[in-house]
Specification:
Blueprint (H helix, E strand, L loop, with lengths): L4 E6 L5 H11 L3 E6 L1 H7 L2 H7 L5 E8 L3 H12 L5 E5 L4 H10 L4 E5 L7 H6 L6 H14 L4 E3 L5 H8 L4 E4 L18 H6 L4 E4 L1 H4 L4 H15 L2
Parallel strand pairs: 1-2, 1-8, 2-3, 3-4, 4-5, 5-6, 6-7, 7-8
Helix pairs in contact: 1-3, 1-11, 4-5, 7-8
Bound molecules: orotidine-5'-monophosphate (OMP).
The site of orotidine-5'-monophosphate has 16 residues, from strand 8 and helix 10.
Subunit structure: Homodimer.
Function: Catalyzes the decarboxylation of orotidine 5'-monophosphate (OMP) to uridine 5'-monophosphate (UMP).
Enzyme class: lyase
């Protein structure tokens, strides 16, 4: 039995049955499954037990909280009882907001999203932010970690710069993962699974490249094997 790969499979499914089926197929191969807004808003807290099953797989609750500190703290407290390993907040909410989440969910790693992987440098310019995405990502990372975030979400393209900024103890999580030559879909800042690991990512978030495959279990196993070859 090999150790599950450092992959969080994004269970972005329209219904609970599909999500639970995907979770069952991938959990022999990956460490974590991710529940996002689509599933959580449709089914609420019960979805966590459904995807966790009996496997003991880690659950990543991706709600991307972003509001005033009091509201985010209360929301984080509300879901802390579900014991997710990770809970996302937007670093752009500022240090008091990140700290409120950290204090409200002591058994969970608060993962601060630095800059969505769907945004390009041109998108940033369009909303009045000049310069490369990496500059924004580094600033957000420093603010979030200063406020107590134990994990950060960034694209694989910035992960080495973020590691240099925050040091070895912060968990670096990278969505924006695509197999070589594959369609990037709505992602702007992407890299392959092997590149993400080589750059220093601790956990890769992968959705459609696995769940959109004819056999999600085989797709997860294939990527896990590729990661073992670059990082045994
Ligand atoms: O927080 C996240 O997980 C996240 C942050 C981010 O910047 N970009 C991003 O794609 N995600 C999530 O990662 C997953 C990526 O899915 P795929 O693009 O299908 O691999 C989705 O569930 C997104 O919600």
């Amino acid at each position: 039995m090999t150790t599950p790969a450092p992959i969080a499979v994004a269970l972005d499914a329209p219904d609970l049955e599909t999500a639970a089926r995907w979770a069952g197929l991938v959990t022999p191969h990956v460490s974590t499954v991710k529940v996002g807004l689509e599933l959580y808003l449709r089914y609420g807290p019960d979805v966590i037990a459904s995807v966790r099953g009996a496997s003991g797989v880690r659950v990543f609750l991706d709600l991307k909280l972003h509001d005033i500190p009091n509201t985010v703290g209360a929301a984080a407290r509300a879901v802390a009882r579900l014991k997710p390993t990770y809970l996302t907040v937007h670093a752009a909410g500022g240090p008091a907001m990140v700290r409120a989440a950290v204090e409200a969910a002591p058994g969970t790693q608060i993962a601060a999203v630095t800059l969505l992987t769907s945004l390009s440098e041109a998108d940033l310019a369009g909303i009045g932010i000049q310069g490369p995405p990496e500059d924004v990502v580094r600033r957000m990372a420093a603010v979030a970690v200063g406020a107590g975030a134990q994990a950060l979400v960034c694209s694989p393209r910035e992960v080495a710069a973020v590691r240099a900024e925050v040091g070895p103890d912060v968990t670096l999580i990278t969505p924006g993962v695509r197999l070589a030559g594959a369609d990037t879909q709505d992602q702007a800042r992407v890299a392959t699974p092997e590149e993400a690991i080589a750059q220093g990512a601790d956990l890769l978030v992968i959705g459609r490249p696995i769940t959109g495959a004819p056999d999600p279990g085989a797709a997860a196993a294939g990527i896990a094997a590729a990661l073992r070859r670059v990082s045994p």
